[in-house]
Amino acid sequence: MAGKFLVSLTSAKNDPDKATVGFVVANAAVASGQETVVFLNVEGAYLASKGYAEEIHEEGFAPLKQLMDQFVEAGGTLWVCSPCFKKRGLEEESLIEGATIVGGAKLVEFLSQGAASITY
């Protein structure tokens, strides 16, 4: 049985290194058979908006958009903090493919099932 792993991502263009490393770790987790969720919150919520991540390419890493696409294609789950998304004036029509807007209760439910968690 696979374990559960959560990457809480609070960064985007404000700290592209953290945003990128968060998805590198998430890809490693999903590739190792973990049921993996990336929770985009605070500034990380911007990453759920179409076109936003395409401008982020941290030296020494694959482009962030490529890492995000790989994560979803590998079966990773992408959740977006509902109040964080709304606070930033983002529109549901601009949501990237594979992302789901969720509230805190969904996150708490996943963590209460024994998920390990890391934050970037």
Automatic annotation (TrEMBL):
InterPro entries, alphabetically?
DsrEFH-like, Sulphur_relay_DsrE/F-like
Which superkingdom? Bacteria
- Pfam families of this UniProt entry? DsrE
What is the protein named? Uncharacterized protein
Q: What is the source species?
A: Neobacillus bataviensis LMG 21833
